[in-house]
């Protein structure tokens, strides 16, 4: 018995030892597990976003470009995302989101425990390979803002801790706003505002019930439920969301029924669309580069709001005017153009295909023959070469604001791809549109508009060569007043005016003061516009006439704000007094005559525009360029038509001169603007200085005459010009002579051209 007791006691001792050992082992294992878990969690939390990052999330935001009348023109972005506060989002959007994604959103603290446990149980029961995680809106926000999209345990744990921190940092409404501004809606749209514009062309605040449900439906799968690609899938998903909203009481059964019965009506504008005025917004993008460097701002990520000067209504009218008229010009050119064989072969030799064949050792004639056999390729090449190009830009003279901008013949927002912009990148000879600078210099020097100059060719020696400028109709005449010579665009009088009273350098100084920035060659042919300029600077210079002699720098941006709507920059354009106001008024009156009775008379007689306006046509040598510049006190516009390759030119004055190929664009544009009462366009008079001198003058005798006769007009003089006129009156009257055909816009014609830059 004693022995048995001893054995039992020993067994008990051994059992206690084994139990202690097991407890020790289990304790050690538990400690190790806890330590490992602690280390694991610590290592994970070290990579979680800090307090500062949580309080200042920095998603990439698109910069928005707006017209002056509040239209969204374009976006610059890496990710198409625009931040808007919750009160700028339709109430139906968060209702649809919560009803679909997170019913307990306002009750949980970042993790919906009940929903999570049910989801895990369902995953186990169904044996899913890809588990559903039942993430809350806050967890999804944590993933979108700070984490990756990978499906791992590490990411899920990080998501949980980050969601808890987000709940501690933000209110529920702030979390909703952050989520709706960061989530991806497909078609390149990040955030609800970008999605609203992409699919429905409206701000998120204006989304109706069915549109809101459609966009929330996309979140489940941006490809499968994209309404632009899969409308049936999208509609089914939308209706499911509407039923969930009805079930949760967010909307009434009647609202749900009406919305379910409606079709999805898209105004789809994908991110590949360059928006309104693509040439203009590309010009702005280029001009923002130095601003971005100076202010350490990334225009593609920092969510700027760029307020521009463009008027979307005027832009529409400009595009319509260009489209309507260039089709007419192209049709006439296509009927008249005959390809010279040498020029056709030359274009083929300039292609990369020809060069590749030569590089491979093929002889030139053989390469040419092989390529010409590919008729489809040749036809396409020659077709592109003969497309009429165009530029049109309109400015507000008093502010320099750019109101409308068409940089070429391809301005379809969906097709435009950083095209060559003829408004500011193309430098072409301005032809007779440059003549007003010559006359301005003369008027400012005291030469009156009544001064008569002989309309005869003038031979000018230049080294061993002789340059002779002729009128385009090859005709000549007698003494011609400057007013008549400018309105009829008489070359020979203009050249003689420069030769007798001015120097090329003087004319250049006036042109530069008025806004021309391009290099101008100081030679006699400058009188006829042989030095190249671009349409933007020509509009700027003529804006000086419209603005009482004050030049204002053209500008496209008025204000730039950051993502919080704080002003980063406000633009104050440069300005200066370029002309004496009396000189300016005399020139304005002479340029008005161009429209009333000169080369621009189609404006009142063909297009019925009777407002106070001045202008000038221009046609360069061999019909390579057609121009018209027109202005009123409210607006100045420049139209140019021609070809990218200057070896191609218009074939006839009947459609290719400035009065035919360019003027109608300005006229059509102005007519549309005046017809739109919302623009507030009205007939205004140009400012007349107090010291301007007005005298009734006979067109026949060029001397003072009685008022109210058909032959008499009101002539305007500067004080200096009037003194010279009085001196002329003391001499016997001389007969004046008018050009035979006042309707022809005289281009540059010459026998030798050492001064011609062509």
From TrEMBL:
<feature type="transmembrane region" description="Helical">
    <location>
        <begin position="20"/>
        <end position="42"/>
    </location>
</feature>
<keyword id="KW-0961">Cell wall biogenesis/degradation</keyword>
<dbReference type="InterPro" id="IPR023346">
    <property type="entry name" value="Lysozyme-like_dom_sf"/>
</dbReference>
<dbReference type="InterPro" id="IPR001460">
    <property type="entry name" value="PCN-bd_Tpept"/>
</dbReference>
<keyword id="KW-0328">Glycosyltransferase</keyword>
<comment type="similarity">
    <text>In the N-terminal section; belongs to the glycosyltransferase 51 family.</text>
</comment>
<keyword id="KW-0511">Multifunctional enzyme</keyword>
<keyword id="KW-1003">Cell membrane</keyword>
<feature type="compositionally biased region" description="Polar residues">
    <location>
        <begin position="747"/>
        <end position="758"/>
    </location>
</feature>
<dbReference type="Pfam" id="PF00905">
    <property type="entry name" value="Transpeptidase"/>
</dbReference>
<keyword id="KW-0472">Membrane</keyword>
<keyword id="KW-0808">Transferase</keyword>
<keyword id="KW-0812">Transmembrane</keyword>
<feature type="domain" description="Glycosyl transferase family 51">
    <location>
        <begin position="70"/>
        <end position="245"/>
    </location>
</feature>
<keyword id="KW-0645">Protease</keyword>
<comment type="similarity">
    <text>In the C-terminal section; belongs to the transpeptidase family.</text>
</comment>
<dbReference type="InterPro" id="IPR050396">
    <property type="entry name" value="Glycosyltr_51/Transpeptidase"/>
</dbReference>
<dbReference type="Pfam" id="PF00912">
    <property type="entry name" value="Transgly"/>
</dbReference>
<keyword id="KW-0133">Cell shape</keyword>
<dbReference type="InterPro" id="IPR012338">
    <property type="entry name" value="Beta-lactam/transpept-like"/>
</dbReference>
<keyword id="KW-1133">Transmembrane helix</keyword>
<keyword id="KW-0573">Peptidoglycan synthesis</keyword>
<dbReference type="InterPro" id="IPR036950">
    <property type="entry name" value="PBP_transglycosylase"/>
</dbReference>
<dbReference type="InterPro" id="IPR001264">
    <property type="entry name" value="Glyco_trans_51"/>
</dbReference>
<protein>
    <submittedName>
        <fullName>PBP1A family penicillin-binding protein</fullName>
    </submittedName>
</protein>
<keyword id="KW-0378">Hydrolase</keyword>
<feature type="domain" description="Penicillin-binding protein transpeptidase">
    <location>
        <begin position="391"/>
        <end position="634"/>
    </location>
</feature>
<comment type="pathway">
    <text>Cell wall biogenesis; peptidoglycan biosynthesis.</text>
</comment>
<feature type="region of interest" description="Disordered">
    <location>
        <begin position="736"/>
        <end position="758"/>
    </location>
</feature>
<keyword id="KW-0121">Carboxypeptidase</keyword>
